[in-house]
Design goal:
By secondary structure, this protein is of the alpha/beta class. The protein contains 14 helices and 20 strands. Strands 1, 2, 3, 4, 5, 6, 17 and 18 form an eight-stranded mixed beta sheet that branches.
Length: about 475
């Protein structure tokens, strides 16, 4: 395992694979991809729960350089996305560069040598450049509920679904009602005898315009020149038009609010249940969800929605604050991820032995979401301020990858040992982000995974995606300190 490479990439999801592909296309073959699991795919490898699918249309949820003409549906299901990633890794020759079962525990920058010294569960290696493509949604979060470890039945997080668990006819509790839960709750409702759904806060859920693609549509995408590009451009434009509602004028989300009310009233006839499912915060403050079957599932007689706070998990059930204890055979946690801990639990040490978690004590920050001052030759993909509420993250990732490639070309051309974004440049970017964030809907009275515990939004990009692409079009040499 002890080896040296030009570039080491952590993670083999969309970001890591896209980075590796672009490196190889540019003739940079001295690279290694470090993957802690035994397969590629990132979040689409981990989330195999029933009903798992994407809420971004298929033709936009793919690399621009590798379109897929034969998507089965308008919104891609998890198995199809994972197979697409496998196809990309095989086609572009990335698989030989991947070291599976290799989890990074520490990366320490050696300023004199200009190398990252990387410790993993399978040994040591070094790299001139370190690209962290870990994503924001890769570490499942379990709720801090008293008695959680005392439960004697089946229990697992939705991102680690236990497919061996026999849930048919059983009493099952679901804790959490986020993006994953609204997909697997309807599937569970078809199987279990009794389903208790514990909701902390209501979500805005609108109808999902999903359907299978016809054979004619697939043929057009495969054989008609420009058809795929036109579909992709139309989808992108329609989604991008929603940005103003998130970043500046929340009243522009009124059509989506109307769709929410229509969807809710169409499927929920019980006034009390309808009220419980109505959010008390502005639309868009939390992620807007898409589903056609979540509300119908909650209306089933064997499904119960509970809004009273959970007091304790017992050995054989869940007790809420009103004193009611519901006996269950299994608990499924749909409680999201540690989205603000971007590189945890890795230990990242930069110049002057400074740790990244120390630099990020006030919340994660990176210039353009990519580079962190004091950590030379470290590049983040899907880092702070790069998540979206309205469009495809693949578009953002390709912008970041192009920026990193620009940095690497500049380093090679000028024969630089390392580059490090200047602290004043990063601070200025951070100020612009937080100033822009004040106008967004994400800062208007709700708590979400977009923000830190003290209420600072650090995950999302407060602008148009084309503005981000323009900002990352090429690295500005004036933004960096360099060592030749």
């Amino acid at each position: 395992m002890d080896s040296s490479h030009e570039v080491a990439i952590i993670g083999s999801g969309f970001g890591g694979l896209g980075m590796a592909i672009r490196l190889k296309q540019a003739g940079m073959h001295d690279l290694v991809v470090l993957e802690k699991a035994d397969e590629i795919g990132g979040t689409w490898r981990d989330n195999t729960y029933p009903g798992a699918a994407c809420d971004v249309p298929s033709h936009l949820y793919s690399f621009s350089f590798e379109p897929k003409p034969d998507w089965s549906r308008k919104f891609p299901p998890q198995p199809e996305i994972l197979e697409y990633l496998r196809h990309c890794a095989r086609k572009y020759g990335v698989m030989p560069h991947i070291r599976f079962g290799t989890e990074v525990t520490e990366a320490r920058f050696d300023g004199e040598a200009g190398l990252w010294r990387i410790s993993t569960t399978t040994g040591q290696l070094s790299a001139r450049v370190l690209v962290a493509a870990c994503g924001q949604l890769n570490r499942p979060a379990l709720p801090d509920i008293p008695g959680r470890d005392s439960f004697g039945g089946i229990a697992f997080h939705s991102a680690r679904w236990d497919h061996s668990a026999d849930l048919d006819g059983k009493r099952v509790a679901v804790i959490g009602t986020g993006a994953s839960a609204i997909q697997f709750v309807p599937e569970l409702a078809k199987r279990v005898g009794r389903l208790h759904v514990f909701q902390r806060s209501a979500q805005y859920i609108i109808d999902k315009p999903d359907r299978p693609y016809t054979a004619l549509e697939q043929a057009l995408a495969r054989h008609v020149p420009g058809w795929r590009q036109l579909q992709r451009a139309l989808i992108y434009t329609l989604l991008e038009a929603r940005a103003l509602g998130f970043i500046k004028y929340p009243w522009l989300l009124a059509p989506a609010a109307w769709r929410f009310k229509k969807n809710l009233h169409a499927h929920i006839k019980d006034p009390a249940l309808r009220e419980a499912l109505t959010p008390d915060y502005p639309m868009g403050c939390k992620r807007i969800l898409l589903s056609n079957d979540y509300y119908p599932a909650l209306a089933e007689p064997h499904v119960e929605l509970i809004t009273d706070p959970i007091e304790r998990i017992t050995a054989d059930g869940i007790r809420t604050r009103d004193g009611i204890e519901r006996k269950v055979d299994a608990i499924v946690y749909g409680t999201g991820f540690h989205a603000n801990d971007f590189l945890a639990p890795m230990k990242i040490v930069g110049l002057d032995d400074r740790e990244l978690n120390e630099a990020w004590q006030g919340g994660a920050s990176a210039h353009l979401g990519i580079t962190v001052s004091g950590f030379p030759n470290l590049f983040l993909l899907y880092g702070p301020y790069t998540n979206l509420g309205h469009n495809s993250i693949i578009y953002m990732l390709e912008s970041q990858i192009r920026y990193v490639m620009g940095c690497l070309r500049a380093m090679r051309h000028a024969r630089l040992r390392w580059i490090d974004v200047r602290p004043d440049v990063q601070s200025a970017f951070e100020r612009r982000m937080q100033q822009a964030m004040r106008d967004t809907v994400w800062s208007r009275g709700c708590t979400s995974w977009y923000m830190t515990a003290d209420g600072k939004v650090v995950n999302n990009w407060p602008g148009f995606t084309f503005a981000y692409r323009n900002a990352t079009r090429r690295p500005d040499p004036r933004h960096f300190r360099v060592r030749r």
